[in-house]
């Protein structure tokens, strides 16, 4: 009974974090959903072994390891159509409540642009960037989750920010052409 | 015409600009970047550029994981479907997911305990010598009454209960038994 309650709390709290991280790392909704399911099963299997307050880094470490396994196991060959579909879905299907269709589309396109730029970051930079900027993790938590020194986390984050800026410039240049 | 200061923008300064733009630089770095941005167009351009990106990044929220996938609970035998609509779960999730909420609840509980200790702390009463003497006298009187009642009870027990209600029936019983024995020996 207590285990079930603990499991529910953990899932409610971390399901979106796991899914978001997996999505950015794997660049594929279906794989991200698979990883999320696997992490949830692992949480259930280990629910009696960890403290609910210290579960955050364990969960993200597990998620990261599973994402790396997925990336190693098979070279992700996402078809161009699929990517386009997902971008289209993200860009035009979000239910933003605004009366101005131009504004809605513009905002959605900006979001898509930044998401795509993040997805183009190198794997090691992307993981730190997503955990810090999107998931709101602290340096120490990222260090534990990704098993790297805190200083490396800071260096990777700075590199990721610079790289993202370059990617966006590149994207803008492409748009102009 | 007022000419803006020009100086070399090194990697260290760029790092500070980026941190300031993303909002995690310390106050001294922020001030340094702010003043340099006022005096140098290149610094300002960099800061604005990174700040725009940071704003866009910070607007990105977490992706929503579809509920259909989480209505499952693992068991030793496999996966069993289950609904998650539980008030307790939602409540505990709110408490545990937000550190500020946990902190607020902890502070509230500690404050409640401390307040209770202070509010209900037993106060020391001070009595005058006269009051103490009166109380002493009353206690002696009360004890004397109790002692008297005990004495009365003892005499009642000895004179009325034990001799009349207990010893008398026993004697009568023994007399009957003796009579029956005597009858038996005669025959």
Would you write up a description of this structure?
- The complex is a heterodimer of chains A (177) and B (187).
- Chain A is mainly alpha-helical and 177 residues long.
- Chain A has two domains: 2-73, RNA polymerase sigma factor, region 2, helix turn helix motif (Rna Polymerase Sigma Factor, Chain: A, Orthogonal Bundle); 80-176, Arc Repressor Mutant, subunit A, CATH 1.10.10.
- Chain A has helices at 2-26, 29-45, 55-73, 80-92, 101-119, 123-134, 139-146, 150-176.
- The termini of chain A are far apart.
- The model of chain A is unreliable at 78-82 (pLDDT under 50).
- Chain B is mostly helical.
- Chain B has six helices and two strands.
- Chain B has helices spanning 11-22, 27-39, 41-59, 87-97, 99-119, 129-186; strands spanning 72-74, 79-81.
- A two-stranded antiparallel sheet of chain B has the order 1-2.
- In chain B, a hairpin with a 4-residue loop joins strand 1 and strand 2 (79-81).
- Chain A binds chain B through residues 4-5, 7-9, 11-13, 15-20, 23, 33, 36-37, 40-41, 44-45, 52-53, 110-111, 114-115, 118, 133-135, 158, 161-162, 164-165, 168, and chain B through 14-15, 18-19, 22, 49-50, 53, 56-66, 69-70, 72-74, 79, 84, 86, 88-90, 92-93, 96-97.
Strand share of the residues of chain B? under 5%
Radius of gyration of chain A: 18 Å
Quantity of strands of chain B, as a count: 2
The biggest sheet of chain B, with number of strands, parallel, antiparallel or mixed sense and barrel status, is: 2 strands, antiparallel
Poorly predicted spans of chain A: 78-82
- Assembly context of the chains: heterodimer
Instruction: Provide the gyration radius of chain B in Å.
Output: 47 Å
Describe the sheet with the most strands of chain A: none
- Report the order of strands and helices of chain A: HHHHHHHH
Strand content of chain A: under 5%
Shape of chain A: globular
> What distance separates the N and C termini of chain B?
156 Å
Q: What is the percent of helical residues of chain B?
A: over 70%
- How many E strands of chain A? 0
Mean pLDDT over the residues of chain A: 80
Q: What's the tally of helices of chain A? A: 8
| Name of the CATH first level of the largest domain in chain A | Mainly Alpha
Per the CATH scheme, the topology name of the largest domain in chain A is: Arc Repressor Mutant, subunit A
- Neighbour order of strands in the largest sheet of chain B: 1-2
Rounded average pLDDT of chain B: 80
**Unreliable spans of chain B:** 74-81
């Amino acid at each position: 009974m207590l285990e079930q309650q603990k499991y529910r709390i953990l899932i409610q709290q971390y399901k979106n974090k796991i899914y978001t991280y997996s999505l950015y790392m794997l660049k594929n909704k279906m794989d991200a959903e698979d990883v999320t399911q696997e992490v949830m099963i692992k949480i259930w299997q280990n629910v009696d072994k960890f403290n609910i307050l210290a579960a955050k880094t364990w969960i993200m470490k597990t998620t990261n390891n599973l994402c790396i396994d997925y990336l190693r196991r098979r070279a992700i060959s996402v078809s161009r159509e699929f990517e386009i579909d997902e971008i289209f879905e993200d860009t035009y299907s979000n239910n933003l409540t605004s009366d101005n269709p131009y504004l809605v589309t513009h905002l959605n396109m900006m979001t898509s642009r930044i998401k795509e730029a993040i997805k183009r970051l190198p794997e090691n930079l992307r993981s730190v960037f997503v955990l810090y900027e999107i998931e709101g993790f602290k340096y120490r938590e990222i260090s534990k989750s990704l098993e790297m020194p805190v200083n490396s986390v800071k260096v990777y984050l700075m590199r990721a920010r610079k790289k993202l800026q370059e990617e966006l410039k590149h994207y803008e240049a492409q748009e102009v052409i | 015409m007022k000419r803006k200061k020009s100086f070399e923008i090194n990697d260290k300064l760029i790092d500070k600009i980026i941190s300031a733009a993303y909002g995690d630089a310390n106050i001294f770095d922020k001030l340094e970047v702010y003043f340099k941005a006022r005096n140098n167009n290149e610094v300002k351009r960099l800061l604005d550029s990174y700040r725009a990106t940071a704003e866009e990044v910070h607007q990105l929220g977490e992706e929503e994981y579809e509920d259909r996938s989480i209505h499952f609970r693992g068991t030793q035998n496999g996966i069993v479907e289950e609904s998650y609509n539980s008030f307790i779960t939602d409540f505990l999730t709110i408490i545990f997911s937000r550190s500020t909420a946990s902190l607020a609840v902890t502070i509230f509980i500690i404050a409640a305990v401390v307040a209770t200790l202070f509010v209900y702390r037993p106060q020391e009463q001070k009595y005058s010598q006269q009051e103490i003497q009166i109380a002493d006298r009353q206690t002696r009187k009360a004890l004397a009454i109790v002692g008297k009642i005990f004495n009365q009870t003892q005499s009642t027990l000895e004179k009325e209960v034990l001799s009349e209600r207990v010893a008398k029936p026993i004697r009568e019983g023994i007399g009957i038994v003796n009579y029956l024995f005597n009858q038996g020996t005669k025959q």
